[in-house]
Write a structure and sequence with these properties.
This protein is an alpha/beta fold. The protein has helices at residues 64-77, 91-100, 111-115; strands spanning 3-6, 8-11, 14-21, 54-57, 83-86, 104-106, 120-125, 130-136. The chain has an 8-stranded mixed sheet. A hairpin with a 4-residue loop joins strand 7 (120-125) and strand 8 (130-136). The model has no long low-confidence stretch (mean pLDDT 94).
Length: 139
């Protein structure tokens, strides 16, 4: 059963991919550019791969250099997230997403963050401010 949520657009674009949900803020400098694997110790998604996923997280983490450079390196290797859904849109991450044309939204219906699960199929429409969530992909 598909669920629809409304959101505010930050970086325009669309993407459809599997959800990867992080309860911790993400620093893209701690993601391996060649693989897309997050390598931050004690992070709730340590060891998971962000490449091609719709990454759902509270916010970005780190200075402008580490955030933008980390995301840029992922983009250059083709291992960046397909889209970003954040609870709090920090200036550094917003700037990086806009410059790198990675669809990004915030101000999502509150129930979204309690209902979304890893593996859910997410259609992110950061042009019209809509998120659609379908059933989990088979693993």
């Amino acid at each position: 059963m598909e669920r629809t949520y409304h959101c505010a657009k930050i970086a325009k674009g669309t993407a459809e991919a599997e959800a990867l949900v992080s309860k911790d803020a993400v620093c893209f400098y701690l993601v391996v550019p060649e693989t897309g694997e997050l390598i931050e110790r004690n992070h709730d998604i340590n060891g998971k791969n962000v490449a091609g996923k719709i990454l759902i997280m509270p916010s970005g983490k780190g200075s402008s250099v580490v955030q933008a450079d980390g995301l840029y390196k992922l983009l250059m290797k083709g291992k960046h997230p397909a889209g970003l859904i954040v609870e709090t849109a920090d200036t550094v991450l917003v700037t990086a997403a806009v410059a790198m044309e990675i669809p990004m939204v915030h101000k999502v219906d509150p129930e979204f963050f309690s209902e979304i699960k890893d593996g859910d199929l997410v259609t992110l429409d950061a042009v019209n401010g809509v998120i659609r969530v379908g059933d989990r992909k088979s693993v």
